[in-house]
Amino acid sequence: MNGMIKKILIIDDSPIARKMLKSCLPKDQGYEFFEAGDGKEGSVKYQEVNPDITFMDLTMPVMSGYESIEEIIKNDANALIIVVTADVQMKAVKKVLELGAYMVLRKPLNREEIQSALLKVHDTLQGAG
Amino acid sequence: MESSVLEDNILTQDEREILQEIMNIAFGKSAADLADVIDAHVELSIPFIKSMQIPDLPEYIRSHVKDYKLINIVEQKFWGKFRGDAILVFSSGAGKALIKMLQSEESKSFDSEPIDILESETLMEVGNILIGACVGKLAELLKDIVSYTPPMVLVEKEYSEAIAHGYYDHDKKAIVLKTDFSFDTGNVSGFLFLVTTNESIMWLKESLNTFMDQYE
Amino acid sequence: MILNQIFDAINLGIVVLDRDLLVQKWNRWMEIHSGIDADKMIGKSIFEIYPDLESSKFKRSCKSVFSFGNFCFFSQKLHSYLFQFKTSSYLGSDFEYMQQSCAMGPLRNEDGEISSLYIYVQDVTENAAYQEKLKDLNIKDGLTGIYNRRFLEARLKEEFFRYKRYSGKFSMVMIDIDNFKEVNDNHGHQCGDFILKMVSARISSAIRNIDYLIRYGGDEFCCLLPETGLEGAYTVAERFRALIEFQDNNYDDEIINITISLGVSTICDSVDTPEMFIQKADEALYKAKKEGRNKAVAMD
User: Fold this and answer.
1) Which domains does chain B have, with CATH numbers?
2) Which of A37, A112, B123, C278 has the fewest C-beta atoms lying within 10 Å of its C-beta?
3) Distance from CA of A122 to the nearest CA of B (A)
């Protein structure tokens, strides 16, 4: 993978979850990480930082993942948001995809899943390029 | 009123956060699998962790259910390295609402049973599955295997008589994991309390740290 | 080696099913009580041999065991049995089929995954028989053996709840023996008891399986007729009246004839509590008495 993905934004109210996600990502790619602890903070950070990929949790205080996705997509239709959640009921998955999320990954995370997700993103970005 | 886990030095700040995230994952997965098994959408709230002295437990539970007036309770013990009591409290009318929810092609057999037997059977069945889902997923993440006692049920009792003062070990501490649940098919809601005591807590601390080691 | 022997020696049925609910193990106890050898069961779907098992509750339980590893319990009180085995005792039994208490739980493979489930089956027929007797003592009348008033109250509560949910028909016949006091005065209390038994037996023989005959008071009975409207109930009441009128009760070589008066009521929008239901039947009964006894009156 070349340097198409530089900035990664992680939005999750659990510091442990953010840590877990970071540790699943390859260490040698020089990613720059940004974090937010709720949906509102996340949406604001997004505008500030303009990340290449955003990982979003769904159940958060202040503003939920659903609302945050909506807000981010409103301001940037090309936002690449990967939803990371434990609750993978059809209802929830459908809703976030309709809102514009790129894909849904289920917790707990493992390295292989994240790697293949990144490859997919990379292909998409290349194609769009 | 709020006694912090830190105060009692039971779990460290880190351990508490790990447990919180593990519960988020466990209960999130439970909700998904539950929907598959009982064919209904269940919302499980973000779980809440609290430590307390065992004798304070009845009052704690009562404080949550006092708006309910009449309640239904399903209780089961679970036993692994992680062990304790699961106490599931349903709002009034839950039994009847759940009967309706589970009723399908078999309405014939339902009509021949007395309502109160059907109610307790349905509460026990759904309660058993709900408890099994939450405890089971939690145990799975912590790499533990758990067995269960048969569920006991109390149907439509006044909350004050249902949650009695039992024989409690006064020097036992407990960690209470609480989640709110509600079914989308109207009007069934309640709380799940998982009470785990001294014996489990040391093991819990260890396994929480082991869990995080995967993510270093 | 030892475990295998325990598997077949234990006084408990053990069945192991894989994720497709095909039989993997069927122990000796199951062979004995089902009459089916293990080698005829292994590899088959459990539903092929026991189609009655295929209920949504059973499948739901299996699903939850495979998903969560929880334990599901099937108590005798709520299910009677899972596997239909005829009771095999020559000593006679209250039950046609073995009463069972069963449980289901997960079995894991070397990788720790839940690959099968077990079902264990306990014969609790004897216990269940004791429970029935205790129950009977509570809801049956000692003298006549029919239901008692406590049962009536519970039953009515049931039916009204059902009516509120499903509507439908439900009627009641209140029955009173005419001049019962005279029987006691002229022939003694033992004869009075005898007459009560004769009347309840006669009427019992004339009702359907779904109807209930209850001893309501000293010489009063109440008959509950589910799924029956006012007209139908009146016809039934008339039949009772005639049966009792023409019955010769032979007590100590003396033929005693008695008659009954009957009042009929039915659940409808204006009669929507058990108390009103009974009151309406009582009013009809009173009318029957006033109009000369040996009569049935229906009140709507």
Assistant:
1) 13-213 (3.40.1550.10)
2) A112
3) 24
